[in-house]
C-alpha cells in the first residue's frame, strides 16, 4: 500500500500567521491533488499539481510539487479563521481513477 | 462539477442491524467510489462501485460486510451489514468523470452504532 504521510498532523495558529503543510511519499506521483474538508462536508479539490517543481497559487495558498515528484507542500500566508479545516493530499491512479488520501492535517486558525 | 446527494446524512443504529446509504449524482459519471472516514482520521477507500457488475473492494473490505450496488450511471448504494460500534464512521460517496474530471464528494453519512 502506498502511503502518503502528511505533517504536521495538527496545527493551531493565530490569525495572520503563516504555515506550511507537507505531503510525502516513498514513490513517485504522476500528479497530486490537495483538498480541504470542512466539518459536515466532503473534501473539496483545491489544486492539482503535475510537473516536478511546479508552483501554483490560489489566493493566499501556495502549492509546490517536489522536483522528484515524491513530495508536495501547501503554504498558507496570513491564515484566516475561514482556513480552518482538514487538509488532505491525494494521489490518483490514471488507470483505475482511484484516489488514495494522505493522513491529513487538521488546521485550526484562531481569531 | 457534479452535485452528489447522500442520504441519510446521519443515523444512529443498534448493534447487529444493517443500514443502506444512498448516493445520487445529478449527472452521469464514469466512476463512483465509497470511502470511510473514521473519527478524526483521513479517508480510506472501501470500493469502486461498478455499473452493472460487482464492486471492486480494497484490501480489508469485503462484499458480505459492505455490499454495494450501482444500477446506473448516476446512483449507488452502500450497505453496512451486521453493524458494530467499530463501524461508527462517516461514509462518503464520490464520483469522477463529470466533465471537469475531478473527484467530487457528497457531504457524507455519519453513522453511529450503539
Give a structural overview.
The complex is a heterodimer of chains A (111) and B (114). Chain A is mainly β and 111 residues long. In chain A, 0% of the residues lie in helices and 52% in strands. Chain A contains no helices and 11 strands. Chain A has strands at 5-7, 10-14, 19-24, 32-37, 44-49, 55-58, 61-65, 71-76, 85-92, 99-101, 105-110. In chain A, strands 2, 4, 5, 9, 10 and 11 form a 6-stranded mixed β-sheet that branches. In chain A, strands 1-3-8-7-6 form a 5-stranded antiparallel β-sheet, with no helix packed on it. In chain A, a hairpin with a 5-residue loop joins strand 7 (61-65) and strand 8. Chain B is globular. In chain B, the strands form 2 sheets. In chain B, strands 2, 4, 5, 6, 9, 10 and 11 form a 7-stranded mixed β-sheet that branches. In chain B, strands 1-3-8-7 form a 4-stranded antiparallel β-sheet, with no helix packed on it. Chain B has 114 residues and is mostly beta strands. Chain B has strands at 4-7, 10-13, 19-25, 31-37, 44-49, 56-57, 68-69, 75-80, 89-96, 104-105, 109-113. Chain B contains no helices and 11 strands. The chains are: A mainly beta (111), B mainly beta (114). The A-B interface holds A 1, 33, 40-45, 48, 86, 88, 90, 92, 96-104, 106 and B 4, 30-31, 33, 35, 40-45, 48, 59, 92, 94, 96-97, 102-108.
Amino acid at each position: 500500500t502506498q502511503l502518503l504521510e502528511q505533517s504536521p498532523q495538527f496545527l493551531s495558529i493565530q490569525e495572520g500567521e503563516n504555515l506550511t503543510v507537507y505531503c510525502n511519499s516513498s514513490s513517485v506521483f504522476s500528479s497530486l491533488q490537495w483538498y480541504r474538508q470542512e466539518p459536515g462536508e466532503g473534501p473539496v479539490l483545491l489544486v492539482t499539481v503535475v510537473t516536478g517543481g511546479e508552483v501554483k497559487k490560489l489566493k493566499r495558498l501556495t502549492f509546490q510539487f517536489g522536483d522528484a515528484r515524491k513530495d508536495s507542500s501547501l503554504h498558507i500566508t496570513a491564515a484566516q479563521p475561514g482556513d480552518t479545516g482538514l487538509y488532505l493530499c491525494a494521489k490518483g491512479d490514471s488507470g483505475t481513477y482511484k484516489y488514495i488520501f494522505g493522513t491529513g492535517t487538521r488546521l485550526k486558525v484562531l481569531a | 462539477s457534479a452535485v452528489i446527494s447522500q442520504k441519510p446524512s446521519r443515523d444512529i443504529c443498534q448493534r447487529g442491524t444493517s443500514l443502506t446509504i444512498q448516493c445520487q449524482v445529478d449527472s452521469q459519471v464514469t466512476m463512483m467510489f465509497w470511502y470511510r472516514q473514521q473519527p478524526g482520521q483521513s479517508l480510506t477507500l472501501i470500493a469502486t462501485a461498478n455499473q452493472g457488475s460487482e464492486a471492486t473492494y480494497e484490501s480489508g473490505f469485503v462484499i458480505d460486510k459492505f455490499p454495494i450496488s450501482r444500477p446506473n450511471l448516476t446512483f449507488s448504494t452502500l450497505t453496512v451489514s451486521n453493524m458494530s460500534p467499530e463501524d461508527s464512521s462517516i461514509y462518503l460517496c464520490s464520483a469522477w468523470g463529470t466533465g471537469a474530471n475531478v473527484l467530487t464528494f457528497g457531504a457524507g453519512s455519519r453513522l453511529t452504532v450503539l
